[in-house]
Predict the 3D structure of the following.
Amino acid sequence: MALLNILHYPDPRLRNQAEPITDINDDIRQLADDMLETMYDAPGIGLAAIQVNVKKRLIVIDVSEDKSDPLILINPEVINAEGEREFEEGCLSVPEAYEAVTRADKIKVRAVNFDGENYEFDADGLLATCIQHEIDHLDGKLFVDYLSNLKRQRIRKKMEKHQKQKL
Ligand code: GNR
Ligand code: NI
């Protein structure tokens, strides 16, 4: 097990596009374990491989109260979306910024299990919000992209200031 380094906005590597996973091997299992450990440590309710600079379509999520329900999604896709729901989002790659984002309220998700078989499930509420947020990461997208230019520039400036202080 290992803690992974999380990239911070506006790091250009967060704009990379993740590639589908074709071979589910021990490296993928190890990466998923390390991502879960990193997510719980942060702490956060989700983490996408792009955020730890791995260009693979892998996300981990746990929206349970007591952190007892880890979910690992390989090659996840939203295959149906219904309704709208606004939720105050945050992101481990954009620390200390919280803004309302509107996404689908109910989704149907297709993913691949560790045996390489497709499966589908329905999600709503916080889980649906989180899955859409994480799949965006795999496509190089961040929640700040949904905000006004003014809000995004403010967040960007604040992040750049914090990063300079750390150098
Ligand atoms: O920890 C997280 N909380 C959160 C809250 C509202 C909407 C989405 C999220 S995901 C975020 C972790 C993260 O950055 N995942 O990419
Ligand atoms: Ni995020």
About this structure: The first strand starts at residue 46 and ends at 48.
